[in-house]
Design a protein that fits this description.
Number of strands: 6
Number of helices: 3
CATH class of one domain: Alpha Beta
Radius of gyration: 24 Å
Mean pLDDT: 81
Structural class: alpha/beta
Distance between the termini: 58 Å
Shape: elongated
């Protein structure tokens, strides 16, 4: 294989991997009747789990998600309070294992006229597992206890071992999910 072709293939693979790794499918919805400019503070909803653990799979991820949400809310001029604020924020994380199948074939030997003749072809199908995760963020108005904004972001999960990179990835996803909060009414 020529050097130019090898460099081209490596570049395409790197671009595809980078594009797939940063893709986040985001949706959001909100109540159009609510005046979001009237809110000045927010608090956290009490976790519904009886064991006291947060909605994330582990306490480190819980801390990272909460820090990212708090940072985004502060950027929007909302002050975090220890009790009930004008808004109450909650989140949930879900994961799903996806399975796809990849088939490869190898051939060797001579092929005769019309494909008939000596040689051998083998095919192998293997399962390819990946995980996707969804971050759901819900924001409620304390007065009336009604949902006023909801957003979610779904992405393929990658194994990131560096804590700083994990925080960076979580902050990016939270930023994308909260991009439409508060909505322009």
């Amino acid at each position: 294989m020529s050097r130019t072709r090898t460099i081209l293939i490596a570049t395409v693979v790197a671009l595809v991997v980078t594009a797939c790794g940063s893709s986040v499918n985001v949706t959001s919805d909100w109540s159009p009747e609510v005046d979001f400019s009237s809110f000045a503070s927010f608090g956290w909803l009490a976790d519904a789990r009886s064991d006291g653990a947060g909605p994330a799979p582990d306490p480190f991820t819980d801390q990272r998600i909460r820090a990212a949400i708090e940072s985004q809310m502060a950027e929007r001029g909302l002050e975090k309070v220890s009790g009930e604020g004008d808004l109450m924020v909650g989140y949930q994380v879900t994961t799903r294992t996806n399975v796809s199948y990849q088939t490869t074939s190898t051939s060797w030997g001579r092929r005769g006229w019309g494909g008939w003749g000596g040689g051998m072809t083998t095919m192998r199908t293997v399962p390819v597992y990946s995980q996707s995760g969804t971050l759901l963020i819900s924001i409620y108005q304390t007065e009336g206890k009604s949902l006023v904004w909801h957003g979610s972001g779904q992405a393929d999960l990658r194994s990131i071992t560096d804590p700083d990179l994990r925080q960076e990835r979580i902050s990016d996803v939270v930023s994308r999910v909260l991009r439409t909060f508060p909505p322009d009414n």
